[in-house]
Amino acid sequence: MKKNSSWMLLPALAVIICLSCGGERNNQGGVNPLDLHLPDQVLTNTETYLTSAGRRTGVIKAETLKVYTNKDTTLMYGVHVTFYDSSGAHVSTLTADSGLVTRNSTILEAEGNVRAWTVGDKLLLTDSLRWDATREEITTEGFVKAIRGADTISGWGLQTDQRLENIVIKNIQGSFREPDSETD
After folding, report:
1. Residue of 128, 100, 106 lying closest to 115 (CA atoms)
2. Residue 116 pairs with which residues in a beta bridge?
3. What is the pLDDT of residues 72-119, one digit of tens each?
4. So where are the chain's domains?
């Protein structure tokens, strides 16, 4: 009697399918949909120059960069960005766990332990934000903390220029230090 060996292939096929669905996890524990497809290029320790209308708007350094040509998307990990204004002056810096740039777009989306600071004493802390190079604007809908000297303001949702000078927080909470009585 001839044995049917196809039943032995089913468990092996199930294991192969489960292992092939790995993908990297994003900060929220989900699978990043782009990582389900193999990138066209993987680069390490990169430096990328962003331009708008022929002028340098930013320099992105990344520990790992994954290019998805068919999606016109680049994912970055270990992100460090230097921002420049329309005159080419360095105005602020950003670090994040990861970032995403779409080709032909002037928008960088940063996620995970996002810190932005200016040459002066301004600091912005959040889990995610969007930087629009054309508008020289930073926005987020998430929780954010803005620190300037001894003053701290926090809340949900933010819109500011990349110099962190004109900060608008939608749902705001804050604390200001009391002025010294000697300087009143």
Report:
1. 128
2. 94, 124
3. 899 999 999 998 887 888 988 999 999 998 877 778 899 999 999 998
4. 35-178
- The sheet carrying 151-161 orders its strands as 41-52, 55-68, 73-84, 90-102, 107-118, 122-132, 137-148, 151-161, 168-175
What's the fold here for domain 35-178? lipopolysaccharide transport protein A fold (2.60.450)
Residue 1 confidence (pLDDT) above 60: no
Cβ density class 129-161: b for 16+ within 10 Å, e for less:
bebbbeebebbbeebbbbbbeeebbbbeebebe
Indicate left, alpha or beta for 150 from its phi (over 0: left) and psi (-120 to 50: alpha): alpha
DSSP conformation class of 101: E
As a whole number of angstroms, the distance between CA 15 and CA 29 comes to 22
pTM more than 0.85: no
Which burial class, exposed, middle or buried, applies to 98 when counting CB atoms under 10 A from its CB (0-12, 13-18, 19+)? buried
Amino acid at residue number 107: I
Which carries the bigger pLDDT value, residue 126 or residue 181?
Answer: 126
Map tokens 């954010």 to a residue.
144
